[in-house]
Amino acid sequence: MSKKEHIVIVGAGLCGTLLGVRLAQRGYQVSLYERRPDLRIVEQDAGRSINLALSHRGLMALATAGLDKEVHDLCIPMRGRMIHAPGGAKWLSPYSGRTDEYINSISRPGLNALLLEKADSYDNLTVFFEQRCVAVDLEKAEAQFVDAEGKKHVVQGDLLIGTDGAGSVVRRTMMSRSTDLLFNFSQSFLRNGYKELSIPASESGDFRIESNALHIWPHGKFMMIALPNLDRSFTVTMFHPFDGPAGFNTLNTPEKVEGFFETYYPDVLPHLPDLKTEYFENPSSALGTIKCYPWEAYKKTLLMGDAAHAIVPFYGQGMNAAFEDVRIFDELIDAHDGNWEVILPAFSDLRPKDTNAIADLAVDNFYEMQDKVDDPDFIQKRKLEMKLEQQFPEYYSKYSLVTFKPELSYHEAMVKGRRQDEFLLNLVNENAADDLDLKAVLEKVKDL
Q1: How far apart are the first and last CA of the chain?
Q2: CA angle 296, 299, 303 (to 5 degrees)
Q3: Which of 255, 215, 262, 261 is nearest to 234 (CA)?
């Protein structure tokens, strides 16, 4: 195939921009269309950022495009969960027993800006902003856009890739041809939504709480988390139901909000000087999972990233999974010598099993973070896992399999991790972690 082929990408978020960069590096002509203004010029909407957790899978994909080193300047290492239990107790639960394994807090707009800067460095990659996709011809790899002035125009490529997020126009077009494509689609929402707040830097310009941790305030049916930012602030996210005593719709006056925080989040309340303003100005948004199949149509059009597999953020893998899409797709280009008629169906058949797995794990982790992180058996299990990882480098907990073993597929990590979790929980239910023979435990885990 000639590298002069024209590839049209709908959506210049994280996935679409990394994909565009990698395809440009390969010599393809790439046109990247984004409905929003350039975020380097126009600030994004407040309250919708959800800081991202960049881990090994995402870094491995960024390395494919030579960006893994550049992105480190945007990262703050988070070595574990800082649990703020009801009653005031606080402790750090490390993500891994190995000191070199941690996740990174990174700003979504900061990372997107870095990718866009990289995109601008290629003559064969052009990014068009304020271009709203309104129609797609799947068989012709053709998309119709409306610009900021309301003018319509049509763009045709040799290949069309939809990386246009959970509300994907490209995916909706596939859904409209569901009988022809045998297209399956499912969407499910959590009963909880999210709202963002912020902890500013202290008067001296420092972090107000521990900087190298992801903070969690668990309360069973609701919780709050906080991730650090480079300006020494924290992005705080409430994950609450919409209705009920802790619901966003119930906490509808400044007095109710302040009273609720005094009761359930007293230790963080002094660090939230703009609580009442941010609570009522920032939106309450839904959290959902999208699964679909196939991801390709007529060997001309493809879905990738959230357009194909939107997930809830509780395993910190949404962006990492989207970046991994780019890496797997890139490997298939090599494996099949740029033959799209083979690559697109191969990618569509290969990826959904893994992205479905991480979607399910993310929902599991939502309930774990709300209900389990301060549970005695869960604490003992994590203690045992840390001991195993510290003493035996070959042992990986379920979390580590997913987060720190990018060479292992999500599906394999899920299957192995769930077996280990069940076994270890049964062990600590009967024995304290300190009383167990670690070598014997490891051998039993291997037998699983």
Answers
A1: 46
A2: 25
A3: 215
Rounded-to-10 torsion of CA 262, 265, 271, 274? -70
Residue 145 corresponds to which amino acid? Answer: F
The whole-angstrom distance between residue 342's C-alpha and the CA centroid of its chain comes to: 28
pTM, to two decimals = 0.95
Give the tens place of pLDDT for each residue, 118-165.
999 999 999 999 999 999 999 999 999 999 999 999 999 999 999 999
Beta strands 152-156 and 142-146: pairing type?
A: antiparallel
Euclidean distance between CA atoms 190 and 29, whole angstroms:
40
Q: Closest by alpha carbon to 416, among 442, 397, 438?
A: 397
Cα–Cα distance measured from residue 383 to residue 93, given in angstroms and rounded to the nearest whole number = 8
Q: Per-residue pLDDT tens for 318-377? A: 999 999 999 999 999 999 999 999 999 999 999 999 999 999 999 998 988 877 777 888
What's residue 1's pLDDT?
42
Place of tokens 């990247």: 32
**Domain regions of the chain by residue span:** 6-76+106-186+287-362, 188-286, 375-447
Angle at 349 between CA 347 and CA 352, to 5 degrees: 90
Sign of CA dihedral 118, 119, 124, 126: negative
**Superfamily of the domain at 6-76+106-186+287-362:** FAD/NAD(P)-binding domain (3.50.50.60)
Rounded to whole angstroms, the maximal C-alpha distance in the chain is: 71
Give per-residue burial for 283-307: e unless 16+ CB within 10 Å, then b: ebeebebbbbbbbbbbbbbbbbbbb
Dihedral sign of CA atoms 319, 19, 156, 185 in order: negative
Strand ranges inside 167-295, DSSP E: 184-199, 214-218, 223-228, 234-241, 285-293
